[in-house]
Amino acid sequence: MISVLFAVLTALSNGAASVLQRRAALNVPDSEAMRLSLIAHLLRQKVWLCGIALVIVAAVCQAVALATGPIAVVQPIFVIELPATLLLAGVVMRVRVSRTVWYGVAAVTLGLAVGMAAAAPVGGSDSVPGEDWIPALVVTGLFEAALITAALGTGGNARAALLGLAAACGYALTAALMKDAMAQLDEGGVTALLTAWQLYATAAAGVGALFLLQNALHAGSLAAVQPMLTLGDALISITYGVTLFGEVLRTGWWLLPQLAGVALIAVGCVVLARSPLAAANTGDTAPAPRVE
């Protein structure tokens, strides 16, 4: 229950942070795309700094969640960040939530419940043997390079989606490294944590993922970024959980409800990201009138 609680808090913090960062990204010139100077522009905006503060809160909550539960349980819970953020935005902005949004919320929630119940992740270790990280990091690096190369060859929402998936992969890697680092803390205390390479790799992967996310949000709309970010993070994290930490998922006919759950989540994310409430919340358009 502790891991689930802190996973939910992480999702809420990350969702709100994405909205603030998207608003800040709208004020950055297109010429700064994929440049470090983009971060310099963002650092001068209070709304972006508030988003970063929420990212830090989310990181702390995520560390607690990963230290107390399997990665294949914790990370998929983060798919609730989009519906939770939109519903919160509706309250703050005093915009009536449409039936379409509620359908999207229902699809994501039901999909998560069905998928997690069918997968039933169990077992696994808290740490990963050092040599097992080598192929994982190589494959991850190649995957990231392919996504970034493809993104640079296109523009608009296509680039945003590709960079969103690249950011998702970065965040999933960050979570896996963070869980391994927290295991060092449990086994050897603060000294073991501070001398563990996983801690510094976590920071590097997190900064890289954040940079990719800023560029994704700068390149296109939340409708293009969020589904790739949300689903990519969950699915890639499950892959890390199974391959690195030895967590076990149900197979056989259980794969059918698992796939049905993923499909429901995907449909729900797309519906929510395309809603007028999402556009009003991120600044893609002028504030929308009351949505019926």
SSE series:
HHHHHHHHHHHH
Rg from alpha-carbon coordinates: 18 Å
In whole angstroms, how far apart are the ends? 37 Å
Low-confidence segments: 281-292
Question: What level of helicity do the residues show?
Answer: over 70%
- Care to count the β-strands? 0
Characteristic key phrases:
292 residues, mainly alpha, disordered C terminus
What's the arrangement of secondary structure elements?
Layout: H1 2-25, H2 37-43, H3 46-68, H4 71-74, H5 81-92, H6 99-119, H7 133-152, H8 156-194, H9 197-219, H10 222-243, H11 255-273, H12 276-282
Helix pairs in contact: 1-3, 1-5, 1-9, 3-8, 5-6, 6-11, 7-8, 8-9, 8-10, 10-11
Can you describe what's shown?
76% of the residues lie in helices and 0% in strands. The longest helix is centred in the middle third of the chain and has 39 residues, at 156-194. The protein has 292 residues and is mainly alpha-helical. The two termini are 37 Å apart. The protein contains twelve helices and no strands.
